[in-house]
Amino acid sequence: MNETKYPRPKPHASLDARYKAWEKAKMMVEEHVHANASHLVDALTVYGDPTGLDADDITYKVYDYESAALEAGWKYAPEDPDGYLHLDGERVEDFQTACEFSGLEPEEKEIKERWIVTDWLAHHLLNVGESVDIIFGLYIWNRTTSDHHCALDDCMERISAWNQTHYPHIL
User: Does the N terminus or the C terminus of the chain have fewer Cβ atoms within 10 A?
Assistant: First the structure.
């Protein structure tokens, strides 16, 4: 997982710029987030599934390796063309490896909502460290936030910004 493709956006200079960025993320969400699947997944895990879905195939806990690694001082080195994380001369590929190397305990996050997303968005969500399950051929994003529109999630802003940088003619 090479997360340098999705750097955290810099704070917007103005409220207008922030609104425009949110509008782009909202358009992306409207196209790639299809339906809330929280009740479906809960029903399958509580009542069982006659088609043979194994409850072990469903994610129940999500670990925030990124925050733990960044708080410990791991960071991207701009001069590293491979996009590795660096700390005190050490170099690792991803946040989970950084935590394991440093003996860090990631924060455990509760899954608050589950959303059916396109395979395109599932790929990008995985690349920014989000959790995605495949259930009955559907890509289910395990969202750890709620109480606001999906387009306001940090991961959506990062993916949207990356998409605008690499494919400005789309959206």
Answer: N
152 is written with which tokens? 């306001």
Q: What is the DSSP letter of 56?
A: G
* Residue 170 placed within a domain: no
Tens digits of per-residue pLDDT, 92-133?
Answer: 888 889 999 999 999 999 999 999 999 999 999 998 889 999
C-alpha distance from residue 27 to each of 64, 68, 112, 152 (Å): 27, 31, 23, 12
Q: pLDDT confidence of 79, banded at 50, 70, 90?
A: confident
Whether residues 65 and 28 share a domain: the answer is no
Same domain, 94 and 70: yes
User: Cα separation of 115 and 130, whole Å?
Assistant: 12
| In-domain check, residue 150 | yes
